Amino acid sequence: MKTVKIPEILLPANADMQKWAVNACDQYTSDAEYWQNVEKETAGSPSAFNLIFPEIYLKDKPEQRIAQVNKTMRDYIAGGVFKTVKDGFILVERTTPAGTRTGIVLSVDLEDYSFEKETKALIRSTEATILERIPPRVEIRKNAEIELPHVMLLYDDKANSVLKSVKRGEVLYDFDLLFNGGHVKGTYINNPKEVTDALYALTDERNALAKYGSAEKLLFAVGDGNHSLATAKTCWENLKMSLTEEQRENHPARFALVEAVNIYDKALNFEPIHRLVKTDKPELFAENLKTSGGETAYIVINGKKRKIPFNCEIPQGIRELDDYISQFIKQYGGEVDYVHGEEELKEFTVNGGAGVLLPAIEKDNFFKTVVCGGNLPRKTFSMGEGNDKRYYIEAKFIK
């Protein structure tokens, strides 16, 4: 297997790390004030904010913003903003209200990843990929010199064998994150080969039969950043057609930088992603919504929630809800957004619209569900709330 690759990782050489690290671009997509505060806080300093494209701005002169991002990347590279970390992984310890989550920053081969529903690839998406979301992200990535990942991959390791294999080296960063993001510490991993072998051992046939009732191999399931990884895959597929076989072998765009996290990490909480329907007919939306089952969800209108029944098979219940939302918008107009956190959803409905607070899925049978049933509906779960997400810190060349 060669799915996992030891990357050359870029880190800021002398930046104020608190101003460098910013939250994932797909967070706070209904909260312009959050991103305005990020821009204000990081102004005048080297920051990952200047190298990413927050999705809230996708409809706001995107060509101009993309060009500026690409220029800033070149300026940072030429200006010595980055230093290179070679021949190792980075152990990331992220402290949030849920505890300290531990991940490993490494590279994966995009040839071993697929977002197709029935795929048997070693790295798989866990939710339905919305193909329409990929082209604008390709425009952002295709001329970029580097990538900064918010992709988090999950691996299935109840015995915690992978982290037990880690040998720690130098502490590379250790600081508090902006806007109540908690604390993050990054430590150089001295023995990436042994850690890689421990990851590969998880796909051993005997382990797979015991866990999933199938000899099918699944190394990583995408936890966060599915559309970003799908974009990286699309860009690689487009690029490799112009390369020779030899060039394809080690081209930097073939490998994506990610953080890998054990699904059994005690600080890794699976949170529901709630639905916000921006409509001037919230009462009609609630009146026409028909749900049933032994689980519980809530309709939220004007900041107040009301209990409704929900399908015990939560992914199927979400499919049914999303179908209803799609039909409602088609008939009456409006727009859907996806919100992390109950209080945020309540607040967004105070001035109109309707929300649906969803129940969380269980993570114990998560890998088995993916192996046996394929992709979950889009935006079924989130690993923590908005401020628990992976902040952009590390980077990697893709050209």
The overall average pLDDT, rounded, is 92
* Portion in helices: 25-40%
Computed Rg: 21 Å
User: What separation lies between the terminal Cα atoms?
Assistant: 24 Å
Note the main sheet. Answer: 10 strands, mixed
User: From the helix content, strand content and strand pairing, which structural class follows?
Assistant: alpha+beta
Beta-strand fraction estimate:
25-35%
Description:
- The chain has helices spanning 17-20, 32-42, 62-78, 134-141, 161-164, 192-201, 205-212, 226-240, 245-250, 282-288, 314-332, 342-349, 366-373, and strands spanning 4-5, 9-12, 82-85, 89-96, 99-109, 113-114, 123-124, 146-147, 152-155, 168-176, 183-189, 220-224, 255-262, 270-272, 274-278, 295-301, 304-310, 335-339, 354-357, 381-383, 396-397.
- It is an alpha+beta fold and 399 residues long.
- Strands 1, 4, 5, 6, 7, 9, 10, 11, 12 and 13 form a ten-stranded mixed beta sheet that branches. The protein has a five-stranded antiparallel beta sheet with strand order 17-16-19-15-18, with helices on both faces. A two-stranded antiparallel ribbon has the order 2-3.
- The mean pLDDT is 92.
